[in-house]
Amino acid sequence: MMLQDNGYIFKPHELPMMAGSPATPDMSGKRRLLYGLTGFFLAVAAGLQNGLMTANIANLRGELGLTLQEGGWVTLAYFMTYTTASILFFKIRPHFGLAKFIRWTLLLVLASNVLQVFFRSYEVEIIARLMMGMGTSGLFTLGVLYAMLSVAGMAKVALIVILSGLMQVAATLALIITPNLFDDGNMQAVFVFQGAITALATACVLALRLPPTLEQKSLSWRDVLSFVLYTVGIALLCAFLIQGQIVWWTTDWLGYLLALAVLAIGLMMLIELNRAKPLIDWRWALGRNMLMFLIISFLTRVFTAEQGTGANGFLQALGLTTSQLITYYTIIGLSSVAGIVLSVIRLDIKDIRRPIVVALFGIALGSYLDIGVSSQTPVSYFYTSQAILAFSSFYFAGPVMLEGMVRAMAKSTDYIVSFIAVFAVSQTLGALLGSAVFGYFITYKTREHYANISQQLTDTPANLLPNLIRQANLEATVLAYNDLFYLIFLCAGTSFVISLFAWLYRRMRGINVLANEMVALEAMKSK
């Protein structure tokens, strides 16, 4: 198959690995470096778009006069489109070509930024966040495509791991820079900064074009129908998990959300299971090996919610603001980067599950160190524990993604979209479920501890009662967080012991969980 660009005909070894991916022409080291740096910047820019909004959601609620429930819908709008957009983009790239994919991605992000800068209302914010979710998914994909042109062979896989981690680290970076952006108490500076990042990303893409790709008609109306049903189902699940924490789980309409989510996903699976070429191959995705992989990655992701819901929530309960936690977030950010780097350095395809054992040990250790906190505990007390947790969270993420990618590619490149679909959803829902479960646990235990403490206030003079009630609420909250840290320690510790024994068993028996897949990949290379 011939591919040309401005009169240049690409050589056989320069052709794209698959339709939708850019060609890989021979180029100088300097140009490779430029592609690599552009890819890194695009990944960070994608992470900052949502990171800045998440860091400022309370400020946005105050500026627009939103209720907690409305703020929840603003947060949710991003996840509604971001979680599943990568599936659609994977199909769009080969079907319509890279040029249109790039144009639509940049337009979506730019349009969302423009709406936020020039229009300020709840409805506009919802629309902007829906667009941003889809746009940042495409922007990250664009970053991966750029970065992969800078290296060859297995280094491409390592770059995917690094970029995925950097996008998540950008959320911590957003917390560090937010106090300076919101210094005047106005969200306008945050929105303008987001727009400036997008403008710079657009300039980079226009200045350094991606090589062309091979086009292939890969999108059908059945794909679109399945995508819509899947997106609706996942969006409703996200709504259930986010709004349940706000309006509480006994609210009637939450049950309808969950029922409709199950219905939409069930209909999508029914359609897909009866297709010769499904959008998502559920038989493969729910097969024994992939299902075990998804359960492990999902549960590990649930445990990592300790950082956001646990330590961060505890510090916020003590009344600390983002500006008082810059050193804390800086330590978390640096530890996260260290986890990414070491996971790449220590990456071993023959021992791909070892990082999960290390990560579970780190989560258990970090949670154990947090047990015993009080209302007088300084922020510095959390530096060590949260550094361990941040390192662990990012140390396992890359190898887990690599395992899934290898399993997909060993079948064929057609299975990559199935992996992207189930993996992205498992990570998003894992994080949301962890936050929801831990949030429920904290609320339940706070009420329990407050009931016990309040029994001791029955004979208190009326003039002292208000202060004592506030103190009782604080102490009940502190005790609840201690219970949470202990619960996570027990769960993560138990999971660590189980995963350790499983890892030792495989080591003694010489079992490689990806042995069959590696044989299949080698066979593909030899053809």
UniProtKB/TrEMBL annotation:
Organism of derivation: Moraxella cuniculi DSM 21768
PROSITE patterns: MFS (PS50850)
Keyword Metal-binding recorded: no
Keywords, comma-separated and alphabetical: Membrane, Transmembrane, Transmembrane helix, Transport
Entries under Pfam families matching the protein: MFS_1
Main location: membrane
GO molecular function, one term: transmembrane transporter activity
Transmembrane segments: 33-52, 72-90, 102-120, 126-145, 157-177, 189-212, 224-247, 253-273, 285-305, 325-345, 357-375, 381-402, 414-442, 484-505
Domain of life: Bacteria
InterPro entries in the record: MFS, MFS_dom, MFS_trans_sf
Keyword Membrane assigned: yes
Domain Major facilitator superfamily (MFS) profile, residue spans: 35-507
Any one GO cellular component localisation term in the record: plasma membrane
Subcellular location: Endomembrane system
Record's bilayer topology term: Multi-pass membrane protein
Protein name, as recorded: Major Facilitator Superfamily protein
